[in-house]
């Protein structure tokens, strides 16, 4: 016992905690975060950082919101738990609220995480087709580079082989197509043409696989974790048309894009489409408590209505839709509305992109792109070759920003082993000064190092 007590916090962390992804590095131990306020977090030694990733793209209303703590405490005192085989007021009100934010009528299924929400979507898609007399429709199409979660089904839909290959065999029936990464398009076609070609690759895949075997396409409105790939609107609309043409359900993963990240309530609302199923997590509660949603279009839900056993959707999630998380989500949405945060995301996003524009003068900055408060900076060896820089170079940029008090992320074509896109996703509640700080630090990192 004495030995344990004499260990420092950082030593105990190394000894007892298995971190997500990163192995413990002596020269760069993990940050032990103690508190957060607004866009800033403070570690246990008192160092402050602007968290330009909102944790993992999720603390949309910023840190330290007392209202959210209070509403959680009140709800826990009144009713800490009831399973969603029952129901409760916050779950009902939240389902109503989410419907008001969407452009069609949806029924809400609750779980705890983005991965959970996507698993639910896949199971519903498969069962829906069975109940419609098409039991062979089981395959799910998704894109390379996309991330859809870490549980076996969601990982199977994920198109990042580095995250997958050690855990194979994964779930059967998941197929990938290439993403509309028009930064790397051939010179002789337009962005629009390239996007249409990429959408049609989905149609070809459906035909090659026999359309009677395809249950659904899952995609984010824009690929976030795979390196901020923003499609032309013709892409998204064409994918919707293709799905409709072949009786394939369209699942839209709004886990990151939802709740104002891209400057609208939901990312797909930039493209004027009506998804069959929409998954949400992260910004739903701004990560104050775990909660996720699979929103299912009314017509699909109708196929599950009936008294016989085979109409049951066999999926239980003990903590899904727990009362405190639903109450927090409602209050979180109230804050977003009161502070007009979706609009703020759009406006601050423009300021951020404008400020980052200057980075394009750097020989290694191939592209700067973004929508709302979500941005990516693609780092290449040269603008002509577009060859991604090494992961070591990216790690150096991230460390240089951190040394100046700025936390940024990275991602990219991990299929090819590249992580060459710096990512930014600050809280929607960021101040103008916060945005200027991000721009200032990044300019220093690129031009003064
Ligand atoms: N979908 C997307 C687009 C995500 O970015 C993530 C998580 N980063 C997930 C699903 C999985 O969410 P969770 O980590 O809550 O399971």
From TrEMBL:
MF-aspect GO terms: transaminase activity
Cited InterPro entries: Aminotrans_3 (IPR005814), Aminotrans_3_PPA_site (IPR049704), PyrdxlP-dep_Trfase (IPR015424), PyrdxlP-dep_Trfase_major (IPR015421), PyrdxlP-dep_Trfase_small (IPR015422)
Domain of life: Bacteria
Keywords of the record: Aminotransferase, Pyridoxal phosphate, Transferase
Family in the record: Belongs to the class-III pyridoxal-phosphate-dependent aminotransferase family.
PANTHER family: AMINOTRANSFERASE, AMINOTRANSFERASE CLASS-III
Name this polypeptide is given: Aspartate aminotransferase family protein
UniProt source species: Pallidibacillus pasinlerensis
């Amino acid at each position: 016992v004495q030995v344990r007590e004499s260990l420092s916090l950082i030593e105990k962390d190394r000894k007892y905690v298995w971190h997500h992804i990163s192995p413990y590095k002596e020269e760069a131990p993990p940050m032990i975060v103690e508190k957060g306020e607004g866009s800033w977090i403070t570690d246990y030694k008192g160092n402050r950082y602007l968290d330009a990733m909102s944790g993992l793209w999720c603390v949309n209303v910023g840190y330290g919101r007392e209202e959210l703590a209070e509403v959680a405490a009140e709800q826990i005192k009144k009713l800490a738990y009831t399973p969603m085989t029952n129901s409760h007021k916050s779950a009902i009100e939240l389902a109503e609220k989410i419907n008001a934010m969407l452009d069609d009528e949806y029924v809400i299924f609750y779980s705890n995480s983005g991965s959970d929400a996507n698993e639910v979507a896949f199971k519903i898609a498969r069962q829906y087709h069975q109940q419609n007399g098409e039991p062979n429709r089981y395959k799910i199409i998704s894109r390379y580079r996309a991330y859809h979660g870490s549980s076996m089904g969601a990982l199977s839909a994920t198109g990042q082989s580095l995250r997958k290959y050690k855990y194979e065999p994964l779930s059967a029936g998941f197929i990938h197509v290439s993403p509309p990464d028009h930064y790397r398009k051939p010179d002789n076609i337009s962005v629009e043409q390239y996007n249409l070609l990429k959408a049609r690759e989905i149609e070809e895949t459906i035909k090659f696989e026999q359309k009677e075997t395809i249950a659904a396409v899952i995609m984010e409105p824009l690929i976030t974790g795979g390196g901020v790939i923003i499609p032309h609107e013709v892409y998204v609309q064409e994918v919707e048309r293709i799905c409709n043409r072949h009786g394939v359900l369209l699942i839209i993963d709004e886990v990151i894009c939802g709740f104002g990240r891209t400057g609208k309530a939901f990312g797909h609302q930039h493209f004027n489409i009506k998804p069959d199923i929409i998954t949400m997590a992260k910004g739903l509660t701004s990560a104050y408590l775990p909660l996720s949603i699979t929103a299912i279009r009314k017509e699909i839900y109708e196929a599950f209505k009936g008294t016989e056993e085979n109409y049951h959707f066999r999926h239980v999630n003990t903590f899904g839709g727990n009362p405190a998380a639903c109450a927090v989500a409602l209050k979180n949405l109230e804050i977003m509305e009161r502070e007009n945060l979706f609009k703020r995301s759009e406006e601050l996003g423009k300021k951020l992109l404008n400020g980052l524009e200057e980075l394009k003068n750097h020989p290694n900055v191939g592209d700067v792109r973004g929508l709302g408060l979500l941005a990516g900076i693609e780092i290449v060896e040269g603008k002509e070759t577009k060859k991604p820089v090494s992961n070591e170079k990216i790690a150096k940029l991230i460390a240089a920003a951190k040394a100046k008090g700025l936390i940024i992320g990275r991602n990219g074509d991990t299929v090819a082993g590249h992580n060459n896109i710096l990512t930014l996703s600050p809280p929607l509640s960021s101040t103008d000064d916060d945005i200027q700080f991000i721009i200032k630090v990044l300019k220093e990192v690129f031009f003064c190092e």
